[in-house]
Amino acid sequence: MLTQKLGLVILNLLLGSTFLFHAGCAYFLGSRAADIEKAAALVSKDEIHQNNKILSFKELYPKFVSSQNQIGFIALGDMGTGDEGQKRVSDAIKKWCAKAEHNCDFGLFLGDNIYPSGLDLDVNKAYLQWQSLFLRYYSDLDFPQFLILGNHDYSRRGVGSPNWDKAQSYFAMQKMTQKGRQTKNNKAKWYFPYDASKDSAHPSSWYQLQYDNLILTALDTQRLLYGKDTSSQLELFNFGPKVDTSDKIHVVIGHHPLYSNGLHGNAGNYGNGLAALTEQSHGMALQNFFNYPLNPEKKLCDTIDIYISGHEHNRQIIKKDLPCQTLFIVSGAGGKTDRLFRVEKNTLESDTLWQAATLGFTYFLIKDDQIKVNMINAEAEVDYSLNCVKDGVDKRLLCREIEK
C-alpha cells in the first residue's frame, strides 16, 4: 500500500510540475466570488466525488433501462456551436434513434459542450446559454445524456489557463433543471452522474457507471493535462477484488484523444508542430496517465477496450495492439468540422481503420461480448461499420469491418 501511495505521489509530481504557474492564473480568473456563490448554493464544491464507487445505471435511472437484451448508445463531442452543423447532427440523432431497431439507451457528450468559452459564471446567464446551445437541440431526446468537459468548457476560447470554477456552472444547470426551472420539454435527462440518495454526494466531472456487462468510465482530461486530480481519477481504475471486469466491456471517455490524425495529433506530441499546446506539455500528462502501471503486469490502458474522445472536429477509428490493445474512436464532429492533417497512407497513424472530416456521431450497440460500432453522418446514414468481439481467452477486442 505504501508503495502504491508513493507511486501516486511521484506521478502527480511528474504530471503537475509544469503547471505551477497556471495555478496562480486560475486563482485570479476564478476570483469572481459573487458569481460563484450562486452556483455554490446549488452544488458542493468539494472535489471528492461519491467515494469512487461504480454507480449502477439501473438504480439511478431505472425508467430508462433498455427492455432489449442489448445496450445502444450514441457519442459525439464539440457540439455547442449553435449553428447549422449542430442542428444537422442533432436531427440525424433523432432520426436514427427513432427507428425501432436502433435502441438508444443513453448518449455520451464528449466535451466542448458550449462554444466558445463555456458557461458563464453567473448562473442566470449560464442558463440562457444552456437553453440556446444545448437544450434547444437535445432536450427532446428520450434517454439520459452523460456529459464530460473539454478545454472550451473551462477556458476563454479554449486556450490559456482554465477557470476551474466553470464546472460549477455546469453542475448548477443540472441542479436547476432538476429543481423545476425548465420549459415544458426541457426535462432533466442530462447528467454528471452521482448517487443523489447520499447527502455527501454531488455531481463530478469524472465518474463511473455500470450497465449490465458495460463499465463506463468518464475522465476529465483537461484537469489531467494540468496535473489536477490525477490520483482521484486513477482510483476509478482500482476496481478491487470484488469486481470482476475481465468479462465486461470497459469503455472510457475523455475529451482529448490519445491517437489522432487531426490537427492536434497524438498525446505526447499534441500539435504536430502546427498547433502546439506548450502549456499542456503537448499532452504528455495524458499519455503518462494511460501508461500508468496498475501492477507489474498491467498498465492502465490494458483495462480499456474502447476509448472515445472528441477535441478533433472529425471522426476516426484507430485500432491499436501496442502499447495496449485498445480501440480508439474520435467523434468530435457534433457541431463543426476541421480537415484531417494526416491522410496519405505513409503518414497515417498506424492501424487507422477509417476517418472522415465530415459531420456526424458514433453509435454503439453491445450484446453479450460483442460490440458494433457505426459511424453515422449528418444524414443519419452509416458511413462505416465495425464489428468487435471480446475474446474469451485473451480478453481483448477482435474487430473486423462490416461491408455495406
Notable characteristics:
404 residues, alpha/beta, Purple Acid Phosphatase, chain A, domain 2, eight-stranded mixed beta sheet, 25% helix, globular
What does this structure look like?
The protein is an alpha/beta fold and 404 residues long. It has one domain: 4-Layer Sandwich (Purple Acid Phosphatase, chain A, domain 2), CATH 3.60.21. Helix content is 25%, strand content 22%. It is built from eleven helices and 18 strands. It has helices at residues 2-16, 20-29, 33-40, 57-60, 84-97, 123-138, 151-154, 166-178, 221-225, 230-234, 284-290, and strands spanning 55-56, 71-76, 106-109, 145-147, 190-191, 207-211, 214-218, 249-253, 293-295, 298-299, 306-309, 315-320, 326-331, 352-356, 360-367, 370-377, 382-390, 397-401. Strands 1-6-7-8-11-13-12-14 form an eight-stranded mixed beta sheet. Strands 5-4-3-2-15-16-17-18 form an eight-stranded mixed beta sheet, covered by helices on one side. Strands 9-10 form a two-stranded antiparallel ribbon. Strand 12 (315-320) and strand 13 form a beta hairpin. It is globular. The model is unreliable at 13-51 and 180-187 (pLDDT under 50).
